C-alpha cells in the first residue's frame, strides 16, 4: 500500500500534486492508495477525487502491525539561488513495502506519459463549473501575493505581468483581462482598473479551469485547473521560481510543463522544447554536484523578522500589508 497525509499549511496545489502523483504511482505499482487527514483537503467542497481510501485521522495515529516505511523525495539546496529544488525521483519505482510518500512531487514524469488520466483523478463539480464561465476572448492573470512578496527572488516583478499582457494583445489579439488572486490588495495596487476574482478558492479554481487564456504566476495552484479544464493558451515565467537568475537554472527542474509558453525577462516567449533543455541541464548539474541531500532545517534563514516572537511577527506583517501591499503579505 501507499500512503499520503494531508497536512496543516499545505496549499491546495501542493495537496493535489501529492494526491495525483501518489495515485499515478499506486496504479503503476498496482497497489492501493490511502489518504490520511482527508478532512484537511482544501478542495473537498468543489472537487471530486478518484476513488481512494480516505481517513480523517493522521497517519501518525494509525496503529499498524507492521512497519510503514517513509519515502522522502530527493531534494537539493541551491546556495546560489537560495532555493530547494526537486525533480522526478526514479526511486519511487523501486518501492516494495507499505510506504508513506513525503515530498513535493511536482514533475509530470510521475504521470508516466499519460496526462489524460488527470481528468479522471480530479473532477470539478458541475455546479461550480457552470457558475464560473470565462469568455473565450478574456485572459486571466493568476497573481500570487501573500507570503510570496517577502521572497524577492521568487515573487514576479510588475514587468512580467505588463510584458505578458502586451504579448497577449500583440500576438493573440486579446484585449480583456481579469485577475484571479489570493491577495486582493496587492493585485488592486498593481492593476486598479481590472476586475478581480478573489476570496473563494472554489470560484478561483473554476475560473482558471474555464479560461482559454492564462498568464500564470510560479505557483502550484494553477496546474490542475490548467490540465483538467478546457484547452488553454498559457504564458508562465521562464526558470519558474527564480525567473531572473543569472545562472539560467530552472528552479525547480520538476516545474517544466509541456505545451506552455515561457516568458523570459525580455518578454520573449520560449517554447517548451527549448526550455526543457535548461531544465534538464539544471537537473544534471544538481545530481552531479550535490551528493548529500540537505534538509530544510540545515539551511540558515536570513530574515530580519526572525528576531521577533511568532505572534508579534504576525501582527507586524499584517500592519505592513495594509500600508505596503506590494511588498508585504
Please tag this protein with its features.
single chain; 329 residues; alpha/beta; 7-stranded mixed sheet; 5-stranded parallel sheet; 9 helices; 16 strands; 30% helix; 19% strand; globular
Q: What is the CA-based Rg, rounded?
A: 20 Å
Mean pLDDT over all positions: 90
* Fraction of residues in β-strands: 15-25%
How are strands sequenced across the largest beta sheet?
12-11-10-13-14-15-16
- Largest beta sheet, briefly? 7 strands, mixed
How many separate helices?
9
User: What is the H-and-E element order?
Assistant: EHEEEEEEEHEHEHEHEHEHEEEHH
The residue ranges in which pLDDT falls below 50 over 5 or more consecutive positions are 299-308
Shape: globular
Number of distinct beta strands: 16
Structural class per helix/strand content?
Answer: alpha/beta
Oligomer: single chain
Measure the end-to-end span: 40 Å
Helix content: 25-40%
Task: Write a brief caption for the model.
This protein is of the alpha/beta class and 329 residues long. Helix content is 30%, strand content 19%.
Walk me through the structure.
- The protein has about 325 residues and is of the alpha/beta class.
- It is about 30% helix and about 20% strand.
- Helix 1 links the parallel strand 1 and strand 2.
- The protein starts with a strand and ends in a 6-residue tail after the last helix.
Write the layout of secondary structure elements.
Elements (H helix, E strand, L loop, with lengths): L1 E4 L6 H18 L3 E4 L10 E3 L3 E3 L13 E4 L3 E3 L4 E3 L13 E4 L15 H4 E3 L1 H6 L6 E6 L14 H15 L3 E6 L2 H7 L4 E4 L2 H10 L2 E4 L6 H6 L4 E5 L23 E3 L5 E2 L1 H18 L20 H14 L6
Amino acid at each position: 500500500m501507499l500512503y499520503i497525509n494531508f497536512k496543516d499549511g499545505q496549499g491546495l496545489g501542493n495537496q493535489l500534486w501529492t494526491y495525483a502523483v501518489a495515485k499515478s504511482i499506486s496504479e503503476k505499482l498496482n497497489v492501493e492508495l490511502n489518504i490520511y487527514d482527508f478532512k484537511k483537503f482544501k478542495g473537498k467542497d468543489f472537487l471530486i477525487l478518484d476513488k481512494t481510501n480516505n481517513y480523517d485521522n493522521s497517519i501518525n495515529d494509525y496503529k499498524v502491525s507492521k512497519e510503514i516505511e517513509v519515502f522522502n523525495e530527493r531534494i537539493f539546496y541551491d546556495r546560489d539561488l537560495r532555493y530547494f529544488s526537486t525533480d522526478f525521483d526514479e526511486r519511487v519505482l523501486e518501492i516494495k513495502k507499505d510506504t508513506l510518500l513525503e515530498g513535493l512531487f511536482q514533475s509530470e514524469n510521475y504521470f508516466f506519459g499519460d496526462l489524460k488520466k488527470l481528468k479522471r483523478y480530479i473532477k470539478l463539480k458541475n455546479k461550480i463549473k457552470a457558475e464560473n464561465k470565462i469568455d473565450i476572448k478574456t485572459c486571466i492573470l493568476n497573481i500570487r501575493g501573500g507570503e510570496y512578496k517577502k521572497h524577492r527572488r521568487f515573487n514576479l516583478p510588475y514587468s512580467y505581468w505588463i510584458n505578458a499582457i502586451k504579448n497577449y494583445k500583440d500576438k493573440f489579439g486579446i484585449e480583456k483581462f481579469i485577475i484571479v488572486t489570493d491577495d486582493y490588495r496587492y493585485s488592486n495596487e498593481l492593476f486598479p482598473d481590472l476586475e478581480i476574482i478573489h476570496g473563494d478558492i472554489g470560484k478561483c479554481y473554476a475560473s482558471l479551469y474555464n479560461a482559454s487564456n492564462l498568464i500564470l504566476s510560479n505557483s502550484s495552484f494553477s496546474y490542475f485547473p490548467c490540465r483538467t479544464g478546457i484547452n488553454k493558451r498559457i504564458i508562465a515565467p521562464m526558470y519558474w521560481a527564480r525567473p531572473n537568475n543569472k545562472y539560467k537554472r530552472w528552479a525547480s527542474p520538476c516545474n517544466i510543463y509541456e505545451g506552455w509558453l515561457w516568458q523570459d525577462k525580455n518578454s520573449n516567449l520560449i517554447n517548451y522544447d527549448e526550455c526543457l533543455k535548461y531544465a534538464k541541464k539544471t537537473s544534471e548539474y544538481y545530481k552531479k554536484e550535490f551528493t548529500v541531500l540537505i534538509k530544510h532545517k540545515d539551511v540558515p534563514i536570513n530574515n530580519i523578522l526572525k528576531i521577533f516572537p511568532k505572534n508579534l511577527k504576525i501582527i507586524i506583517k499584517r500592519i505592513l500589508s495594509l500600508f505596503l501591499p506590494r511588498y508585504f503579505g
